[in-house]
Amino acid sequence: MEQRLLNWKLRWYRVLIPYVVESLAWIIVRPMLTFFIHMRVYGSANVRAAEKMAKHYNVGLIFAMNHTSELDVMFALPSVYPFSYSFPMFYVSRPNKAYQAGVVGWRRLIYGNWFLGLFGGHSLNMGSGNYAITLQKSVEILKKGHSVCIFPEGRISEDGKIAKIHGGLGFLAEETRAVIVPITVTGVWDITMREFFTRKRHVTLKYHEPVHASHFDTKEANPNIYKFISEAVTNHIKHGPQK
Fold first, then answer.
1. pLDDT tens per residue across span 185-233
2. Distance from CA of residue 149 to its chain's centroid?
3. How many CB atoms are closer than 10 A to CB 161?
4. 76 lies in which domain range?
């Protein structure tokens, strides 16, 4: 398993396909979110600042978001414009078998690795106990100057509040020196399709000021440092959607 993962490369088609699919989806999804869930977006200028910072350091971008619903993958993109430095977006996801347990109906299709792959989804190598192996795909994507969306909690919150934070985000920040954009999404926890299409919800999306790994006073790379960085970034997310 480890050897197979180490041979994984970010081929041109793994960039082109999400670029095309996300470009088409952006045209449809942005107005759809605005109409059906009254989405308000704050901090778009922070995305532009993050892109400028990433260009300066010649690195990629990490978009770190709280995880409250199945719709969250759509909320990183509203202010990430097609043809911009941060486009397309790649998403960290669990392996296909991790989703299939307890997943029925159309969700089995949505959560299949091939479908998520169309939108830049790439699976973790779970169970290795080593971030360098677990997140090796994300590291390569970021080192090539692309954007990765990650949920520091690793799973959907059970009560709408930020759950236990893991060190994966911190590892990516230390390993790749990528620029981090914390994102807070509110108003979408436990949303149903009925609520979505009947326009019952009001969702707010906030892009916070970008953070670079150099902002953190870390003496050496270790699991404690990784978690420290993850929790520090998550503190930005907890601040909520103030303008």
1. 999 998 888 999 999 999 999 999 999 877 776 555 556 778 888 888 8
2. 2
3. 11
4. 15-238
The model carries a pTM of: 0.88
CATH of the domain at 232: 3.40.1130.10
* 243 part of a folded domain: no
Whose CA is closest to 126, among 9, 229, 1, 223? Answer: 1
Contacts of 146 (CB under 8 A, 6+ apart): 10, 15, 60, 61, 88, 90
Is residue 41 situated within a structural domain?
A: yes
Instruction: Name the 3-class secondary structure at 211.
Output: strand
Q: Is 1 inside a domain boundary?
A: no
In terms of pLDDT, which residue wins out, 112 or 152?
Answer: 152
- Distance separating alpha carbons of residues 20 and 16, to the nearest angstrom: 6
44-80 pLDDT tens trace: 999 999 999 999 999 999 999 999 888 888 888 889 9
Domain count, the chain: 1
231 to 45, 164, 209: CA distances (angstroms): 24, 9, 16
Q: Terminus-to-terminus CA distance in the chain, angstroms? A: 46
Sign of the dihedral defined by the CA atoms of residues 227, 162, 66, 118, in that order:
positive
Cis peptide before 95 (omega within 30 of 0): no
Helices 168-176 and 136-143, axial angle in degrees (round to 10): 40
Sequence-distant (≥ 6) Cβ neighbours of residue 241 within 8 angstroms: 40, 42, 184, 186, 204, 205, 206
